[in-house]
């Protein structure tokens, strides 16, 4: 007979929060059986889940050589960052006749 574990037991076994286990069940990453309002997870399914999460070693890529510009090409210097500077304001800001000046009115009406 297969051994069934509760969500709390799986969380303790995997050293995860129980809400994380529920999320894995909801996403379909961890198969589970729902009995009434409670979930039960087969120990074999937990082991299969662990196997699927195993991280493999990185693949060794061939080392890259830096590209050289062609003899007739000059290297292009990087473009300076463009920064927009707004023109200076000249005088006080006038209120729009239909918009109240009180900032809390903006927040209350959701206009922010």
Q: Total number of β-strand segments?
A: 3
H/E element sequence = EHHEEHH
How helical, in percent, are the residues? 25-40%
Strand content: 5-15%
* Gap between N and C termini: 61 Å
Q: What is the CA-atom radius of gyration, in angstroms?
A: 31 Å
Question: What's the helix and strand layout?
Answer:
Blueprint: E1 4-6, H1 7-14, H2 18-27, E2 33-35, E3 38-42, H3 43-52, H4 103-109
Main traits of this protein?
three-stranded antiparallel beta sheet, flat, 112 residues, alpha+beta, 3 strands
Q: How would you characterize this protein structure?
A:
The protein has 112 residues and is α+β, with helices and mostly antiparallel strands. The protein is built from four helices and three strands, in the order βααββαα. It has helices at residues 7-14, 18-27, 43-52, 103-109; strands spanning 4-6, 33-35, 38-42. Strands 1-3-2 form a three-stranded antiparallel β-sheet. A hairpin with a 2-residue loop joins strand 2 (33-35) and strand 3. The two termini are 61 Å apart.
């Amino acid at each position: 007979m297969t051994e069934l574990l509760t969500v709390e037991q799986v969380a303790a076994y995997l050293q995860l929060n129980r809400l994380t286990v529920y999320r894995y069940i909801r996403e379909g990453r961890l198969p589970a059986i729902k009995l009434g309002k409670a979930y039960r997870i087969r120990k074999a399914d937990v082991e299969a889940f662990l196997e699927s999460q195993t991280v493999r070693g990185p693949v060794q890529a061939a080392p890259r050589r830096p590209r050289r510009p062609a003899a007739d090409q000059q290297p292009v210097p990087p473009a300076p960052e463009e920064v927009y500077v707004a023109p200076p304001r000249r005088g006080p800001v006038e209120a729009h006749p239909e918009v109240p000046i009180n900032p809390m009115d903006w927040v209350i009406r959701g206009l922010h």
